[in-house]
Design a protein that fits this description.
- By secondary structure, the chain is of the alpha/beta class.
- It folds into 2 domains: 244 residues, Rossmann fold; 39 residues, no CATH class.
- It has 10 helices and 8 strands.
- An 8-stranded mixed sheet has the order 3-2-1-4-5-6-7-8, with helices on both faces.
- The radius of gyration is 20 Å and the shape is globular.
- InterPro entries: KR_dom (IPR057326), NAD(P)-bd_dom_sf (IPR036291), Peroxisomal_Beta-Oxidation (IPR051687), Sc_DH/Rdtase_CS (IPR020904), SDR_fam (IPR002347).
Length: 292
């Protein structure tokens, strides 16, 4: 008996890397899977359905159920297509993992509008496009689980990834709202910040310098299985970071007690005088909880 018996999972960007690992593990645990992937290089140019079809072939060869979808998830029609395939082939949409993404890295000073728009469109708008029809179905059919993929680039920051970081930070904000709005409908929403060695990350300095420290996609997948299964209970609105360097941990915004002015007539000098109450110091950050 599998952890996802009777469930239907929709996974974007599942033709390789993290999404492929999720799809195969979910199928082994009993889920029917819609494998979405346009194929092509990591900058988002081109398309190739064969990547999704190869994953489907591997799943069905093991006795699982899956269908390939090559829709462009950064469009409303594409998001609807992924959802429609789930309903058409399997009749349900219990789990959604928004994983698809592209990279067009460069320093902010060298940025251009086209690359900015494309990265935002695929990551942030793509998450919206795929989530909207699924969220509406879950709301009317007893709930479900949505996992949105953010990144430490958006939660903390990373050199040369202003477009990517902005998109991933936006996904975190979207997830927070979805968790609030979905709670009364039994829709659980997670944010995932994975760190794995894939074709998307292979040339990042931290992985080139120390590839042995990075998790494989198969090392990330069990954490995502936990998130979408009943093992995680009624948890929602949480960010789970998973990486080789720091393992599995919850990440969250921290807030100081702060200083409340006695009246509205206060000056910037007052902020300076009460800086110890307003800003974090290293002593405020415990060994087990890292501020971000």
């Amino acid at each position: 008996m599998g952890l996802l018996d009777g469930k239907v999972a929709l996974i974007t960007g599942a033709g390789g890397g993290l999404g492929e690992a999720y799809a195969k593990l979910f199928a082994r645990e009993g889920a029917a899977v819609v494998v979405n992937d346009r194929g092509g290089p990591r900058d988002g140019s081109g398309s190739d359905l064969s990547m999704a079809e190869q994953v489907v072939a591997a799943i069905t060869a093991e006795g699982g159920r899956a269908v390939a979808n090559a829709a462009d998830i950064s469009t409303m029609a594409g998001g609807q297509s992924v959802f429609a395939d789930a309903i058409r082939h399997f009749g349900r949409a219990d789990i959604l993992v928004n994983n698809a993404g592209i990279l067009r890295d460069q320093t902010f000073a060298k940025s251009n509008e086209a690359d900015w728009d494309k990265v935002i469109q695929v990551h942030l708008k793509g998450t919206f496009c795929c989530t909207l029809p699924v969220f509406r179905w879950m709301r009317e059919n007893g709930g479900g689980v949505i996992v949105n993929t953010s990144s430490t680039s958006g939660l903390i920051g990373n050199f040369g990834q202003s477009n990517y970081g902005a998109a991933k930070g936006g996904i975190w904000g979207l997830s927070n709202v979805l968790a609030i709005e979905g709670s009364k409908y039994n829709i659980r929403v997670w944010t995932l910040a994975p760190g794995a060695l894939t074709r998307m990350t292979a040339d990042l300095p931290r992985y080139k310098e120390n590839p042995g420290a990075a998790l494989t996609p198969e090392g990330i997948a069990p954490a995502v299985l936990y998130m979408v299964s009943d093992l995680s209970g009624d948890q929602t609105g949480k960010v789970l970071g998973v990486s080789g360097a720091r393992g599995v941990r919850e990440m969250r915004m921290m807030e100081m007690e702060g200083w409340k002015p006695p009246s509205s007539a206060w000056r910037p000098e007052d902020i300076a005088a009460h800086a110890g109450e307003i800003f974090f110091s290293e002593a405020d950050i415990t060994k087990s909880a890292r501020r971000f």
